[in-house]
Amino acid sequence: MGTKIDPFSFPDPELTETGIAPGEKRSIVLGGGCFWCTEALYTQLEGVISVRPGYAGGTKETADYKTVCTGRTDHAEVIEVVYVPEKLALAQILKIFFSIAHDPTQKDRQGADVGRQYRSVIFYTNDEQRKVAQAYIEQLTKAGAFDAPIVTELRALVEFFEAEQYHHDYAARNPNQPYIRGVSDPKVAKLKKVHAGMLKAPA
């Protein structure tokens, strides 16, 4: 990743959600490369109720893994994060998204994973989420957080299509898979090191 800021010093967003009711649940859909990796990260966090891998940005007819992997649809591999803002603010979800989950300066790819389906994108569910995300991108740009421009797309969520069942909890169920060991595990290890206080208690 082309970050120029130490992960322990990565800035918190200056703007976050407001008007949060006690016990309220909210959701946001994030695309940051392979959804196996992003799912593995966000399931670790206290305040996250559920994480579902899926597809967003395209049509129902093309919302399947084989078709999306061609790179010829408008879909991105995404995760739907359902969270309790009282316990985990959108600001922190976005901080992890930009600092650990992926490289937001890579266009239509993440590392060796190349294609539009791996693009950096935030599908917001309301205008306040859009404003928070846009403000954070501007904040990181002004701070010179990365060695290249942030290319993350901001798009209104039209529909989230849940991925095939075998993609759910993929990293947890396939710990010895080479991709998981080489790509997902280092990100999870970094999360545990930098944000130990944000993790769920061991089951």
What does this structure look like?
This protein is of the alpha+beta class and 203 residues long. It has one domain (23-198): Peptide methionine sulphoxide reductase MsrA (Peptide Methionine Sulfoxide Reductase, Chain A, 2-Layer Sandwich). It is 31% helix and 20% strand. It contains 6 helices and 8 strands; from the N terminus they run βαβαβαβββαββαα. A 6-stranded mixed sheet has the order 7-6-1-3-2-8, covered by helices on one side. It has a two-stranded antiparallel sheet with strand order 4-5. β4 (109-110) and β5 (113-114) form a beta hairpin. α1 (35-42) packs parallel to α6.
Model regions low in confidence, pLDDT < 50 over at least 5 residues:
none
Work out the count of structural domains.
Answer: 1
* Main beta sheet strand tally, sense and closure: 6 strands, mixed
CATH class: Alpha Beta
Find the structural class using helix and strand composition.
Answer: alpha+beta
Topology (SSEs and partners):
Blueprint: E1 26-32, H1 35-42, E2 48-56, H2 65-68, E3 76-83, H3 90-101, E4 109-110, E5 113-114, E6 120-124, H4 127-143, E7 153-156, E8 160-162, H5 170-173, H6 178-194
Parallel strand pairs: 6-7
Antiparallel strand pairs: 1-3, 1-6, 2-3, 2-8, 4-5
Supply the key terms.
203 residues; alpha+beta; 6 helices
